[in-house]
Records
---
Amino acid sequence: MIEIEPILNGNRLALARLLTQIENDTHAGRAALSGLFPYTGRAHLIGVTGAPGTGKSSLVNQLARHYRKSDRPRRVAVVAVDPSSPFTGGAVLGDRIRMTELSGDPGVFIRSMASRGSLGGLARATAGIVQAYDAAGYEIILIETVGAGQAEVDIARLAHTTLVVEAPGLGDEIQAIKAGILEIADVLVINKADRPGVENTERALRTMLQLAHPVHRVFRHHGRLELASPSHALDAQSPVAPLWVPPVLRTVASDGQGIPKLAEAITHHQEYLVQTGDLERRERARLQNELEQRIQEALVNRWRAAAKNGQFEELLKKLVAREVAPEEAVAQLVA
Amino acid sequence: MIEIEPILNGNRLALARLLTQIENDTHAGRAALSGLFPYTGRAHLIGVTGAPGTGKSSLVNQLARHYRKSDRPRRVAVVAVDPSSPFTGGAVLGDRIRMTELSGDPGVFIRSMASRGSLGGLARATAGIVQAYDAAGYEIILIETVGAGQAEVDIARLAHTTLVVEAPGLGDEIQAIKAGILEIADVLVINKADRPGVENTERALRTMLQLAHPVHRVFRHHGRLELASPSHALDAQSPVAPLWVPPVLRTVASDGQGIPKLAEAITHHQEYLVQTGDLERRERARLQNELEQRIQEALVNRWRAAAKNGQFEELLKKLVAREVAPEEAVAQLVA
């Protein structure tokens, strides 16, 4: 049994202990998350994803510093997730770099998670950690992942604003692979923008953006067909829901260049989400998804508890021997 | 209602029609697959995956030709799956290239599928198409996908032997991203091996292989600890189950160089799977996975049919308003 009051009151040790329970998916951790749920839904969730070598961790670091040092300092929490193979060790390294600059600030909380078991388990643990941060009163939550396919999509579902980070000199091929990732980007960041080739990277990204947001994604505006543009997105007077076209921004995270502009773009996107009702829609879709997942689990657990001993094994054996088709096996098992 | 006899008898038109039903996930398609199930489990399934630009389609093309022209010609079927965004159009292009060389051969059947809807739906349709090919008597089934994350893993589960295709000059970064893919590779192919930089690519792959198959993956052999090696894998006299270490092979698919060696490696892997009992284990794991998926679906469908009208929507609303926690909502919905 985990007390939730200390977590709501900002006790860091209590939060750290809860995160461990969430990572290990214990009963106590689940119960505590259930108790914390009414206090969630207030934080702005920012996803940060990109290939290894783009400098995501430094960028997250600088964004955290920026939010701490602004006129109205915000409480910032970071969860860094490395869904790739254990031998890359990215999460651990990233943690060490950040610790030196931000440790000691009580308004910042950082947690790293490396791959453990299934991708599904990792996505669930990340969602739980974000929920705990949210209830604990962190206003900005940064969710950092190494770009590795399905993981980004899961995290894009979790985050309100998703940054996709690129860097010059990663080659054209990488961009061909990552075309799908552009579709989840709300803001595109070219980090390490002091490196040669930054113009090429920006040109390639803009070309791909045009492909990802093609001409058919126009909308009716005062009866005329128009292409969506960022200026529309920020125009509160617009009578129709505008489209958000991801801005492309340059940063040099190592010395903080471009970070204020990036924070501004994130704020713009947040305003856009609120004005268009997208924030509510995303939130609702996320909770619907979670509810469906949990119903499914509950049904399977109940079925398992009631299932006849050995019947599953027996039918699986017949299935392997092609003596029964899957449909028949299921009909018998679920009868 | 689809007749299954014409499909078992090798009628191409009947097979083509069934594949369309499977792609559209119709009731008739499912029923036919159920009827065909007893006739499956005979084909060797070969997965071929890799980044865009590696020449996978040409490689698949050449492998199909090789199996057709061998001393004992095998019937070959290909399913090319492009899970990436619609705007890449890879599947369609690949199809056109292959058609010119293999069309007219009654021993070859080719089908392309582009992304439609969910990744899960695509993986299921691919599994159905492979099952139909298998029942129709195709002995070699080639499953081609563009490397895009989760899709490869799903296909590796389906295939008996998975080829991962690389090419020189794709840069180091790409290889860092794709490290996870090495873990699903049974055979590594460096295609376009006549290009400069092939030595670097091979060196990088071998380094990564050592990371993916680290020293702790040794096994006891006559009481001594030994590192696994391909020669052990092929030694039927070995008293312990050896490990398969993926060979690294060079090919030039455009003119057929290296294709016979590649086909040989595939045969070796097939023999290895049979000798170690891995083929049976993989098959069993695949069917267990399918059975679990279907039980889950059946339970959800049954729940949906019995659910009170509007109760789900009502509880979702309360969830969004934080008036109820997910656990409580599920308890009420599943009660």
---
Amino acid sequence: MLPFISVADVSALIRHRGLGTVVRELSYYIKADFLRWNQFNKCERTANHATTGVIELMPIDDGEYFSFKYVNGHPPNTAHGMLTVAAFGVLSQMSTGYPLLLSELTLTTALRTAATSALAAQVQARADSVTMALIGNGAQSEFQAIAFRDMMAIRKLRLYDIDVAATQKLVANLSTFGIDITICKSVAEACKGADIVTTVTADKALATIITPEMVEPGTHINAVGGDCPGKTEIHIDVVKAARVMVEFEPQTRAEGEIQQLPQNSPVVHFSDVLADITKGRVSEGEITLFDSVGFAIEDFSSLRYLRDVIPNPAQMLDLIPEPANAKDLYSLCAIKYQENRV
Amino acid sequence: MLPFISVADVSALIRHRGLGTVVRELSYYIKADFLRWNQFNKCERTANHATTGVIELMPIDDGEYFSFKYVNGHPPNTAHGMLTVAAFGVLSQMSTGYPLLLSELTLTTALRTAATSALAAQVQARADSVTMALIGNGAQSEFQAIAFRDMMAIRKLRLYDIDVAATQKLVANLSTFGIDITICKSVAEACKGADIVTTVTADKALATIITPEMVEPGTHINAVGGDCPGKTEIHIDVVKAARVMVEFEPQTRAEGEIQQLPQNSPVVHFSDVLADITKGRVSEGEITLFDSVGFAIEDFSSLRYLRDVIPNPAQMLDLIPEPANAKDLYSLCAIKYQENRV
């Protein structure tokens, strides 16, 4: 029987431990895995495209464990009361190929994306950053806000979304977190005075949400929403001017903001920066960009974390057969009556 | 909540309808999907290799539905009481990216592999075939035997396995099916007088189980076990001499028996043969080979079939969040107390 971590299980985990704590704990797992980057067998995710969105599978292994995430990205979904991004995943043992855990990964994707964003900001943003512009106030925005409050000491948020109701929802949800919030009327206004600019928009288009005149010297841009071929958020001149950090280069070349640049444009690798091999930022006035598209290792870390903090979930699934004799799979469907229909 | 079809559900389906019926019904779904081959968005499966085996993800979509299968292949597992092959999969809606069904696919893989083998034999084996050699008497052998009894009128089986206990198990399981069984002491003996030779062995090696002198003119070879780079069952000269039919050519070039031949060796496509565009066999004396490695479309068909025959499974999973407001994912983990730890 396979342990199953449900949406309710992850919800309860967050309620009991606190969102900030869960994001921070998860960030330790993500950092630990990025620090052993070369142990992983990495590949680009598979992608099946519809006109309305994409379904991706993200496999990875470290020789001992395997994981994959199923995740979709369908911006029109919210118009029908459905999530833009839904996800689930499995952690398995490489030696046997058997799954060890099936888990929800929708809430967890929001958690791990926020944790990864904040980890990246720790090595790219100026240490004195206190103000963050948050462009896109949808499903992931609370997670980003709280991750940056708890992992980066961000105390002031400047919010903008084309959907005013989304911003109002975010303000209401953050009301008890002690964050100074300013609602802005444009992206440009939100970026004014921001030390960090986080973009988490969902449009599947070559959008240019952040243009050069909006970005002040020394800004760190945390570009979360552009994560698909043909989907970007940042103007090409901003990307060109910035020190760009990537998770897994081949995937980011195809899906990230740097899809706008030549294949040999300079980048630094998140794993190298975490390991102090390269610098994420070299000067106070530099513009830095975390060109985040999300990588399988972050889901691998998340599944490891969930397995550790929810070791005995309430539900066990009858997903893999357990015949008494492994070569007698048929015993599970033995027919008691003589089948002589032919 | 996501419908979940468990191992027990598929076991019950087989017990209630009969294995032969389920395999035949499933073959109609598989045939229908192969007949609309060009509607599918196809890709090779991902593969994460361990020294003991491999974990694969097999995605596919037809524009309306998406499916993937997770499947492992770990021959050493049986020594520890575990299955060589375990699998599960998901059917999803392309327009929303949401999963519609999670199902066990271990039993179902045995069903769909047998159904596909028998479908292939219908278009490649001689119509008067009555005797089949079954080399490899492990977990999949009963499914092959009954599929060929019910879909090809095979009445005589000649069995061989290096594991005598496996053969004894198969004989016991088939005792009520009215099949004339001969236990053989070698592969060569099993092949004698066989109209069809089915190989379902599991070794992850370039094995040559079937050599030229064993194969009589007019034989159809159903090669099920060689399905991985570096894993074959049939001697290169047998493959060269045969009319070879493949499911999805790029995958079979890498994983099938034809990995032993040049990349441009002649093959015919299963979908073309089913559609009567090409012939699976052109003469009575010809040797034909179904170089089966298993393709995602067969699992897609299986999930469609399971959804139709088990429309309301007993278990529903809390796998995908359902917040009242799709942009308010955070509502599912709202913290009731002021979190002011920082």
